Amino acid sequence: MDRRKLKKAATLVFIFAALGVMTTLVSYSVTLYRLFCQVTGANGTTQRVAADTAKLAGKTVTVFFNTNVAPGMPWRFEPVQSQVRIKLGQQALVFFEAQNRADHAIVGHATFNVTPAKAGIYFKKIQCFCFTEERLGAGQKVEMPVDFFVDPRLASDPNTADVDQITLSYTFFQSLKPKGAADLARFSSAPPSAAAGQQLFAQTCSACHGLDHAKEGPGLRGVFGRKAGSTGGYPYSSGLAKADFVWTAGRLDKWLANPQAFVPGALMPYHVDDPARRRDIIAYLRTLSATTAATRAQD
Ligand code: HEC
Description:
8 helices; Ctag/Cox11 (Pfam 04442); binds heme C
């Protein structure tokens, strides 16, 4: 009887030991599989590669953008550019425009989809509105950036080596868990507008500046890209008269923010506090310069 009990116990110990080994194997197999994939580069893993360490491969792919909104979602949602051509490993910044047409704030979340699906694991997003729930105020319009690159391993994987076109599709759904959503207002600083700048110029600058003639200040046509303090016949302050630089967007921005801090001894008794307004005004001044292309590189 005792022997049989002992045998039974031994069998039980064996069974538990075997079960233990199998469980351990099963729970490790995911890790083992990942390890295998990382070593061999096989499909199925979504490990992230830093853009700067990804080796640039010579191959170029075209990425197309596609947008949808779920039925009943009162947003307009469109890609700003329909496609971009990029080298593998090259980081690209693209924009999507969304507008909430409802009279109240709505939280949405975007799902995305990459075709061909086999290229999906090589499509790496660094920044995307699709990472979080997003709130858009009533009637608000924003341009949302997406930062991405295509992993150069797309070209070395035999399964995807033939892929030279990728489509990225987004669909916005109304969120079911709107709490804790990020606010898309963070993207609402509109790109500089030369038209708005022209209006601001007419309202403020034109009191002292003509375009082609001096008033209290010098004429400003062509000032973008022109040497500071150089329009003939205008009696500049000694500060501007001895300035030795060309007006670029960056310098105009500093000047407009605080002329005396940027050029000691300058006599312009006016400044513009709002950075967005400065950008608009500079965009307008830029349109008045024939040398725009030449000076753009110096920004
Ligand atoms: C109250 C008058 C006044 C207003 C308003 C004014 N400016 Fe001026 N601005 C001057 C004067 C005076 C100078 C010359 C300063 C000097 O010699 O130190 C000047 C110089 C400049 C210069 C340097 C030009 C050059 O040839 O180097 C720029 C650029 C400029 N202003 C841009 C603007 C813009 C843009 C606005 C509107 C946002 C504006 N200013 C508003 C009086 C004004």
